[in-house]
Each structure stands twice: as C-alpha cells, then as structure tokens.
Specification:
By secondary structure, the protein is mostly helical. The chain is flat, with a radius of gyration of 16 Å.
Length: about 80
C-alpha cells in the first residue's frame, strides 16, 4: 500500500514476522515480547518517520520493489489453473 509503517510484536508467534519486516527494510518495528514497556518506543519511531521524508520515501520504495499488490490475483489465477 506504500504507506510507511511501524509494527510491533507482543507475543512470540509475531516475532518472526516482525523480524522479516525489519530485516527486509520495509517497515520499522518494536519487539515487545516479554517487555511490554518497549511499546513506548513506537511513538519515537513514528515521530522519526514524520520528521524524515527521506526515510519515508526509502521505506515506500523498498515496499514497492518487493510487493506489486497482485498477490491475491496470482493466488486466484493459480486456483483456476489447478481446476
């Protein structure tokens, strides 16, 4: 959707997804599993994004490079092909 985002993990099964987002450089994140007070860092990440147009543009560019928005269409096409 080309909207810069800050994500968080609050339970263990969310950590891998958060790590993938951050490692791919398509979003910022806070891992708060076992330390919910870490969620307080979200505000400073959002403030940083709001203040840094280049960072926002870089996140958007990386997202657009990795995701074309046609995933659902490709899944539907594959189901049709398998019929």
């Amino acid at each position: 959707m080309a909207v810069p985002a800050v994500s968080s993990a609050v339970v263990e099964n969310q950590q891998a997804g958060l790590a993938a987002i951050v490692d791919a450089g398509v979003g910022l994140g806070v891992d708060a599993v076992g330390q919910l007070d870490a969620l307080e860092d979200i505000g400073s990440l959002v403030d940083g994004l709001l203040a840094d147009e280049t960072a926002r543009r870089d996140l958007v560019a990386r997202c657009l490079d990795k995701f074309d928005g046609r995933g659902a269409e490709r899944v539907a096409d594959e189901f049709e092909r398998l019929r």
